[in-house]
Amino acid sequence: MVIPAETRIRVLFSAEDIAARNREIAAAVAALQPVNLLVAPVLKGSFMFAADLLRAMHAEGLAPQVEFLQLSSYGAGTASSGQVTMVRDLESSVAGRDVLLVDDILESGRTLAYAKDLLVARGARTVRCCVLLEKPAPRAVSVTPDFVGFSCPDVFVVGYGMDVAHSCRELPYVGVIES
Ligand code: IMP
Ligand code: MG
């Protein structure tokens, strides 16, 4: 699937709104005074959010380490397969650490629940979840995010790291494809 350059996208969350929200989330994380903080973005969709959030965290005086994990629950389409698989694991131990999982969207809850359960089982001191967007419940798996950028309508969104069939990740905003 190739997305034509003239595709029209309706902006749902602008770059400016996202930047302002990132600063608020970073301040809220800093207020918790995390110990030996590890920020763990879930690739691929969270890469842009995580990069901006980390810079906002730096501005708040935080000095987290960062490691990525990659999980997959979608194929190239827009419907979740329901099965979460580990594509790439963290390299360091999380034992005794405060971990902040960062993901793009909470939808069914499967991705975050999988990641959180895994890191808790590995002995993390705390595992908190930060998502840019939270879609409406019901969830297939119950998981409550600790930090949420925005409530998102129940539509398929793209941009700011999120893709449709590997396209549109580069957009600096979150939007909906109109045509
Ligand atoms: P969950 O496991 O159903 O909560 O799925 C969350 C994951 O599905 C997110 O991390 C995204 O990668 C993907 N996803 C869910 N909704 C969308 C969407 O509207 N656009 C792009 N990716 C999505
Ligand atoms: Mg994802």
Automatic annotation (TrEMBL):
Q: Does the entry feature the keyword DNA-binding, yes or no?
A: no
| PANTHER family according to UniProt | HYPOXANTHINE PHOSPHORIBOSYLTRANSFERASE (PTHR43340:SF1), HYPOXANTHINE-GUANINE PHOSPHORIBOSYLTRANSFERASE (PTHR43340)
| Coiled-coil parts of chain | none
Q: Belongs to which family?
A: Belongs to the purine/pyrimidine phosphoribosyltransferase family.
Per UniProt, the enzyme's principal EC class comes to transferase
Keywords on record: Cytoplasm, Glycosyltransferase, Magnesium, Metal-binding, Nucleotide-binding, Purine salvage, Transferase
Q: Which reaction does it catalyse?
A: IMP + diphosphate = hypoxanthine + 5-phospho-alpha-D-ribose 1-diphosphate; GMP + diphosphate = guanine + 5-phospho-alpha-D-ribose 1-diphosphate
**Main location class:** cytoplasm
This entry's Gene Ontology molecular function terms read: glycosyltransferase activity
Lineage at the top is: Bacteria, Pseudomonadati, Pseudomonadota, Alphaproteobacteria, Hyphomicrobiales
Its annotated compartments are:
Cytoplasm
SUPFAM superfamilies under this entry? Answer: PRTase-like
Record protein name field:
Hypoxanthine phosphoribosyltransferase
By its UniProt entry, which CDD domains does this protein fall under? PRTases_typeI
Outline the extent of the Phosphoribosyltransferase domain.
22-163
Q: Does the keyword Cytoplasm apply?
A: yes
**Which Pfam families does UniProt cross-reference here?**
Pribosyltran
- Give the pathway: Purine metabolism; IMP biosynthesis via salvage pathway; IMP from hypoxanthine: step 1/1
Needed cofactors: Mg(2+)
**What species was this sequence derived from?**
Camelimonas abortus
State the EC number(s).
2.4.2.8
